[in-house]
Amino acid sequence: MDNSGGRRAGGRQWRFGPNDVLAGSATVSIREVLGRVMANIQEDGPRPVIPLGHGDPSVFPCFRTTPVAGDAVVSAVRSAKYNCYAPTIGVLPARCAIAEYLSLDLPYKLSPDDIFLTGGCTQAIEVIISVLSRPGANILLPRPGFPFYESRCAFSGLEVRHFNLVPERSWEVDLEAVEALADENTVAMVVINPGNPCGSVFTYQHLAKVAETASKLGIMVIADEVYDHLTFGENPFVPMGVFGEVVPVLTLGSISKRWVVPGWRLGWIAISDPNGVLKETKIVDGILNFLNISSDPATFIQGAIPHIIEFTKDDFFNKIIDLLRQTADMCYEKIKEIECITCPHKPEGSMFVMVKLNLSHLEDINDDVDLCHKLAKEESVIIAPGSALGMKNWLRITFAIDPSSLEDGLDRLKSFCQRHAKQNK
Ligand SMILES: *Cc1c(COP(=O)(O)O)cnc(C)c1O
Q: Measuring CA to CA, which of 92, 212, 306, 325 is 20 to 30 A from 414?
């Protein structure tokens, strides 16, 4: 489309059109892809829609957040202390509480000045990609990954290079690929742990190698830890910041996933960098300056944070973890029964699993996108096609829904696959 000379509409020549990046397909998002899958749902079908596409279990009563969190928000609102604009980096008590919360798992202490509040982890990503986008620079992103990174990079003009996560090695980072991809213009690599979309949880040893590699290359690590502590396998959650002495780390997080309140829009950037490299290289100034020209999370949510962090009981976290373990197990076992789908690695964290499609077992399915569209149409089950995450003919399934709906959804997936199976393979 030509954006240079305006557009004709309604018999007139108009002088405006959208930004070229936003007019093209460079910013295709998972939301948009799922929207296209959803469009295949038969209106007023006999069965409820089973959403295995996105990771927002907040609608299910079994995943409801702790009353502690709701009470904290209510008292923050009632106190009338948070009707004001917040400071650019967030209110001090919230930054203190988050610094303490994150320091529990670190060999050094974060200060409140290391914490910047953002509108969810989403805005944290926006901030850091914007800050790093210098002409000619490039960033290393995981494949499969979280496509919001690609979209933000496209919008900011930051070149993306992909390294693979290796399914046969518990989805670990292909570190040789990282070394081969990096050059003098590489600024950072992104590590999402616990992993979306793979459900992987990296070991201490693997994270140590990631840190050494990044340090050798002279790049920082952006650690997306939005699923912090949501682990239910053998590997415990280890924050990347543990290696902050080896390599500067920017830790991104939020309350969206662990507290199951993605609509509250509270996240953070933490400077996990005891050597002060990010300050010296002016990255911290860049973050501050970017936040000065963007909007903040609602002040009353910021006001509620200290109470939410201090008073949420382990019972609540354990209940969510037990539920995720149960649904992840069920998902893994049920996928095993489906001939055309294989799961290379049992999920141990986050809310997702990546599974591989074997098209040679299927009769009239062209690819992952085709399968997702037909599955939505015939079975009212929503699954994200892997191609939206850089993995054609894979599927991303979320198991973070109530167990009986999950069972129903996977049974429907199975009967769909049986119905479309090749008769004589
Ligand atoms: C959900 C998610 C985010 C966004 O988190 P919000 O706090 O809801 O903005 C960022 N990164 C990954 C990997 C996610 O899965």
A: 325
